[in-house]
């Protein structure tokens, strides 16, 4: 058997990632190879790849790749998954530690003995166009009209380390977000593309979302998408500070601190260690 690489698969509410351990595997990750690895036909099937531990700003961190091979500065489910991986592999000790990402330092706390539930301090959101980014004059992008695929929508856009477009509507469905998602993701107004969540308010403590991810498409869950939808709804005066974000893969709890720091709590699960043919990396 040719030398092979071991990857470890985890999921966060059905948003599945492959962990490639950078300390155990001296392989080069290339965009096209990532895309083939993530394919659910010719590859292993995943919404993305977590590559680490690597050094970011002199500290232990993780790089995050979408299934199309593009790199994202942050992934909420990805950070919770990588936190579990670090504990499973004995890279960290204790239940509180931090993980560096390209979007900054994520402070993590493991909430149970089985290491399946994590709370992450995700930082603060920004609605400022230049920071998201959204084209046009510098402004906060709150409940602003956009035309996507020939139809006008009111959207609120923000960054939580990665860009999100939130559209509130009374009717959400997978079909609706799959139809609208590609047009929003790739709209000219979003120079770095964008994640889309269509969002329905259930009550002042509960939202429901359907997700179209930048660089990935339809997913069952999104941690940053949950943070973004909750923060947008809170900014519009719709919500209390504790918000349960319900999505096809389950529920992520968002707490908005008095200083508007966002805390995300959710579960993760180990799936398998997978021995991968080295040809994927050659
Ligand atoms: N599913 C992730 C989001 C991953 C990154 C996103 N696709 C992007 O490119 O910004 C999450 O849990 O946050």
UniProtKB/TrEMBL annotation:
InterPro entries documented for this protein: DAP_epimerase_DapF (IPR001653)
Subcellular location: Cytoplasm
EC id: 5.1.1.7
Uppermost EC category: isomerase
Domain of life: Bacteria
Entry keywords, A to Z: Amino-acid biosynthesis, Cytoplasm, Isomerase, Lysine biosynthesis
Pfam families, alphabetized: DAP_epimerase (PF01678)
Positions with a binding annotation for substrate: 15, 66, 76-77, 162, 195, 213-214, 223-224
Sample GO molecular function, one term: diaminopimelate epimerase activity
Metabolic or biological pathway: Amino-acid biosynthesis; L-lysine biosynthesis via DAP pathway; DL-2,6-diaminopimelate from LL-2,6-diaminopimelate: step 1/1
UniProt main location, coarse: cytoplasm
Could be important to modulate the pK values of the two catalytic cysteine residues (site feature) positions: 164, 213
Catalytic activity: (2S,6S)-2,6-diaminopimelate = meso-2,6-diaminopimelate
UniProt cross-references to PANTHER family, sorted A to Z: DIAMINOPIMELATE EPIMERASE, DIAMINOPIMELATE EPIMERASE, CHLOROPLASTIC
Protein family membership: Belongs to the diaminopimelate epimerase family.
Record's subunit section: Homodimer.
Function: Catalyzes the stereoinversion of LL-2,6-diaminopimelate (L,L-DAP) to meso-diaminopimelate (meso-DAP), a precursor of L-lysine and an essential component of the bacterial peptidoglycan.
Xref: NCBIfam families: DapF
Protein name: Diaminopimelate epimerase
The species this protein was found in: Blautia ammoniilytica
Name of the gene: dapF
């Amino acid at each position: 058997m040719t030398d092979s690489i071991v990857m470890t698969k985890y999921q966060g509410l059905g948003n599945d990632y492959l962990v490639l351990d950078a300390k155990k595997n001296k392989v080069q990750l290339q965009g096209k190879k990532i895309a083939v690895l993530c394919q659910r036909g010719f590859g292993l099937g995943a919404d993305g790849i977590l590559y680490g531990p690597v050094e970011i700003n002199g500290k232990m961190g993780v790089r995050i790749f979408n299934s199309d091979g593009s790199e994202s500065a942050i992934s909420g489910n990805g950070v919770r998954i990588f936190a579990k991986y670090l504990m499973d592999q004995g890279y960290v000790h204790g239940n509180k530690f931090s993980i560096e990402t390209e979007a900054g330092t994520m402070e993590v706390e493991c909430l149970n003995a089985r290491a399946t539930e994590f709370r992450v301090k995700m930082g603060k959101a920004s609605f400022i166009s230049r920071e998201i980014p959204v084209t046009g004059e510098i402004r906060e992008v709150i409940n602003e009209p956009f035309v996507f695929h020939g139809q006008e929508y009111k959207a609120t856009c923000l960054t939580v380390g990665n860009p999100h477009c939130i559209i509130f509507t009374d009717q959400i469905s997978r079909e609706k977000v799959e139809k609208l998602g590609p047009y929003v993701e790739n709209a000219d107004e979003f120079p770095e593309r964008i994640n889309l969540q269509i969002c329905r308010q259930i009550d002042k403590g509960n939202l429901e979302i359907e997700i179209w991810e930048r660089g990935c498409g339809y997913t069952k869950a999104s941690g940053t998408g949950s943070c973004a939808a909750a923060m947008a709804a809170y900014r519009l005066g719709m919500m209390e500070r504790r918000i349960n974000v319900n999505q096809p893969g389950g529920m992520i709890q968002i707490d908005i601190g008095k200083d508007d720091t966002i805390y995300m709590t959710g579960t993760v699960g180990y799936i398998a260690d997978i021995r991968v043919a080295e040809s994927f990396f050659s």
